[in-house]
């Protein structure tokens, strides 16, 4: 029996992947310290994005949705119980994310904001020393 060929992802999702995949993978490598786990977490994130793409696109900030999905995947790989898919993440988690992106990956604040799907002003506040 012939199975239908897998459907190609929509062009918007391919573009989104092209924009964010490398930075997500670099971040995941820092968080997990294991290449295989990082690749798996990022690929699962993009698989979940593909399954929910119309919903993701309807969100005010699709990159924020993707960042939350990646965070849940990484928490799973770290043996943590990810929180439910609510819109808010704890400030401490967001601060840690911003610091890894800024300090470990060397991204400027505007790029950190883009990757996380938040306003640049929010990143400025997150990166201030408490």
Straight-line N-to-C gap: 62 Å
Let me know the number of strands: 0
Question: Tell me, what is the CATH class?
Answer: Mainly Alpha
How much helicity do the residues have?
over 70%
Tell me the overall shape.
globular
Structural class assignment: mainly alpha
Largest sheet: none
Strand content: under 5%
* Count of discrete alpha- or pi-helical segments spanning 4 or more residues: 7
CATH architecture: Up-down Bundle
Summed up, the domain count is 1
SSE ordering:
HHHHHHH
- Radius of gyration, rounded? 15 Å
User: Mean pLDDT, rounded to whole units?
Assistant: 90
Q: Which residue ranges are poorly predicted, with pLDDT under 50 across at least 5 consecutive positions?
A: none
Q: Provide the CATH topology.
A: Butyryl-CoA Dehydrogenase, subunit A, domain 3
């Amino acid at each position: 029996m012939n199975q239908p060929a897998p459907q190609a992802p929509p062009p918007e999702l391919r573009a989104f992947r092209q924009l964010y995949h490398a930075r997500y993978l670099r971040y995941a490598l820092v968080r997990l310290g294991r290449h295989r786990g990082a690749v798996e977490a990022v690929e699962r994130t993009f698989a979940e994005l593909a399954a929910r793409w119309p919903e993701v696109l309807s969100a005010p900030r699709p990159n924020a949705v993707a960042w939350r999905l990646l965070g849940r995947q990484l928490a799973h790989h770290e043996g943590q119980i990810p929180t439910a898919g609510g819109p808010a993440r704890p400030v401490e988690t967001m601060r840690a994310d911003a610091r890894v992106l800024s300090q470990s990956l060397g991204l400027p604040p505007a790029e950190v904001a883009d990757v996380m799907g938040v306003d640049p002003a929010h990143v400025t506040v997150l990166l201030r020393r408490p």
